[in-house]
Amino acid sequence: MPTPHHPDVVIIGGGILGCAIARYLSRLPGLNITVVERHGLGEQTTSYAAALLTRIRPHQALTALAMETFRAIEEMGQASDEPLPLRSVGSLQVSAQPNGQRQLEETALRAAEAGVTAEQIAVQDAMQLAPWLDLTPDTAALWLPDDGYIDPYSLCMAAG
Ligand SMILES: Cc1cc2nc3c(=O)[nH]c(=O)nc-3n(C[C@H](O)[C@H](O)[C@H](O)COP(=O)(O)OP(=O)(O)OC[C@H]3O[C@@H](n4cnc5c(N)ncnc54)[C@H](O)[C@@H]3O)c2cc1C
């Protein structure tokens, strides 16, 4: 019979990855899980992240993982007294290079397949969204309004 001193699973490190693994494994009934952390939970690399959250990635599997992140954030927010501090400020991708513009078109296609809003916008609109960008008229711009960022420490603590 497992006891707290004889766990089934030991996770070394209580950053976002260790806490996320612990959270998912804890759904398996009867599994005794211990997270070993030499500092405080979420205090190391995790706390330094910009924690940008984008939904559409270069590969379908990564997009699925990113979408799961958003779903988990919503689920954890519903389970606590208040929603997690996800700021849906959107993300803007720009390129004046043909290769980059092709990538933006591919991202727009992948977004459409995944049911995520992605708008190809005029360069003037991009500069209104981000006035510090000095864009040339041949720049292509893609706006994903549902992307954002989150406080990484709060996310880690909610998962842990
Ligand atoms: C400036 C910056 C910006 C970033 N921006 C983004 C971003 O926008 N989007 C994004 O997705 N990612 C971003 N990242 C990356 C992201 O922060 C890391 O990928 C993520 O935090 C790694 O999580 P982790 O749990 O592996 O590591 P950590 O958070 O470092 O956790 C590892 C933990 O293991 C513990 N540990 C290590 N060895 C032992 C041991 N022997 N015994 C006990 N405990 C141990 C450490 O104390 C630490 O707490 C950014 C990172 C930085 C630095």
TrEMBL record:
Entry annotated with the keyword Oxidoreductase: yes
Family matches, as Pfam families: DAO
Protein name stated in the entry: FAD dependent oxidoreductase
Species assigned in the record: Marinobacter excellens HL-55
Molecular-function GO terms, alphabetical: oxidoreductase activity
Domain of life from the UniProt record: Bacteria
InterPro entries given in the database record: FAD-dep_OxRdtase, FAD/NAD-bd_sf
Keyword list, A-Z: Oxidoreductase
Gene Ontology CC annotation, any one: cytoplasm
Ranges where the FAD dependent oxidoreductase domain occurs: 8-158
